Amino acid sequence: MFDAILVGARCAGAPVAMLLARAGYRVLLLDKAPSGTDTLSTHLIHQPGVAALARWGLLDAVRASGCPQLDRVVYEVADIRLEGCARGVEGQRAAFAPRRHVLDAILVEAAAAAGVEVRDRCRVTGLLRDGSGRVVGVEGRHDGRSFSDRAHLVIGADGMRSTVAHLVQAPYTVKDPRLTCAYYTYWQDVPATLELYEAPGSWVAAVATNQGATLVLAYVPQSRFKEVRTDAHRAYREQIRTTAPALDERLHGKEPVERLYGTGDQRNFFRRATGPGWALVGDAGHHKDSITARGISDAFLQADILVGRLIGRLGEDAAELDAALAQFEKERDTALGPGYESTLGVAHLTPHEQRLALLRAVQKDPELTAIYFDLVAGIETAGALYTPKLLALL
Q1: How many whole angstroms separate alpha carbon 185 and alpha carbon 360?
Q2: C-alpha distances in angstroms, 351 versus 198, 199, 209, 339, 348?
Q3: 153 CB neighbour count, 10 Å cutoff
Q4: What are phi and psi of 84, to 5 degrees?
Q5: Considering only CA atoms, which of 157, 127, 167 is closest in space to residue 7?
Q6: Would you give the DSSP letter of residue 45?
Q7: What Å distances lie between residue 346 and 29, 161, 246, 276, 315, CA to CA?
Q8: Would you tell me how many other CB atoms lie within 10 Å of the CB of residue 131?
Q9: pTM, whole model, 2 decimals?
Q10: Residue 282: C-alpha distances to residues 302, 306, 388 (Å)
Q11: 54 Cβ contact partners less than 8 Å away, ≥ 6 residues apart
Q12: Tens of pLDDT along the chain (394 residues)?
């Protein structure tokens, strides 16, 4: 009998498992993929996520992996160029963008070190329920054999297409259309920290990651997905050439070091996050377009919120546990709602003149630029930008 079973061992499931184990709970962490595999990702951990890694004692491991810190941001749109760094949070001003096989391994190893039982290559096929219908465990296949394990709580951290969400029939509470499709690959000898380029119908980013590589992403409207996928390489390079010509020049004469990765399935939703004996965390309960790269940082935030609600209330008292889960869902929605709305705004790929006028004022002042990069990182909401200085410039 476990206190909690986590299904999914990446940026949401592994931290939840680790934090629960550190609090003294018996935890099982399952994942269908072999340990150390990659997954589609922007890689970027904004400063709130970096602060979480520091609190958990894992930031040094990310640094030791050779992942460079991103302490300088460039953002270009229309005739505007912002350059600087966020003010940060908890003393963390730099972002990081580790490869996912690096980051996820660090998180799983930390969970195992805390006492979590970890099983990879493990597929959950069903949920165990008691006579009232309450979820009390999981069943599945591991190494060719059937298994079943029981727990006070089953937590789905298994991504946007969550098996747990499907099995509990978690309804959508918010759902919006897909807005972009994204393609990326890795380049060597293309120096960068964090660069963002925006144009009507396009968004391009360059991010330094492990092993001296630079991740270069290109976004196009979802309406173009069928056209783009017929020749994704050409469309990818064309987006870079027209949106970020200086970056394109740095890529001239070079070849990608890996294949082109991409997706047209960037869903935007909140799901019901909790029910009798179950919870959803990370992309399983909430997903949005990757254009603002909030996914990893938001997963860490949800892990902190969920574990904070569970400690002291994860046990035999089902009513107390259900009350804690309801509080988690409410807090999750309050915390992530503003970022969801701002991400949808960016993902429409339509720079509005009102926002451009604001950015022209912001670029005149380093302090306002730092506050704007706090907004990009999810540290502040838009209201923080409207200082007397900005109003005077406007």
Answers
A1: 32
A2: 8, 7, 28, 18, 8
A3: 27
A4: 165, -145
A5: 157
A6: B
A7: 35, 23, 22, 36, 42
A8: 5
A9: 0.97
A10: 7, 11, 37
A11: 90, 91, 92
A12: 999 999 999 999 999 999 999 999 999 999 999 888 999 999 999 999 999 999 999 999 999 999 999 999 999 999 999 999 999 999 999 999 999 999 999 999 999 999 999 999 999 999 999 999 999 999 999 989 999 999 999 999 999 999 999 999 999 999 999 999 999 999 999 999 999 999 999 999 999 999 999 999 999 999 999 999 999 999 999 999 999 999 999 999 999 999 999 999 999 999 999 999 999 999 999 999 999 999 999 999 999 999 999 999 999 899 999 999 999 999 999 999 999 999 999 999 999 999 999 999 999 999 999 999 999 999 998 899 999 999 999 8
Length of the chain counted residue by residue: 394
Q: Are 314 and 295 in contact (CB under 8 A)?
A: no
d(CA 289, CA 344): 7
Beta-ladder partners of 220: 181
Element (H, E) at 29: strand 27-30
The continuous run of DSSP H or E covering 185 comes out as strand 180-188
**DSSP letters along 73-141, please?**
EEEEETTEEEEE----BTTB--EE---HHHHHHHHHHHHHHTT-EEE-SEEEEEEEE-TTS-EEEEEEE
* Rounded CA separation 31/368 (Å): 43
Compute how many other C-beta atoms are within 10 angstroms of the C-beta atom of residue 380: 18
Alpha helix segments (H runs only) across the chain: 13-22, 47-55, 59-64, 100-113, 163-168, 225-229, 232-243, 245-251, 295-310, 318-347, 353-362, 366-377, 388-393
* Contacts with 8 (C-beta within 8 Å, 6 or more apart), sequence order: 30, 31, 156, 157, 158, 159, 162, 282, 284
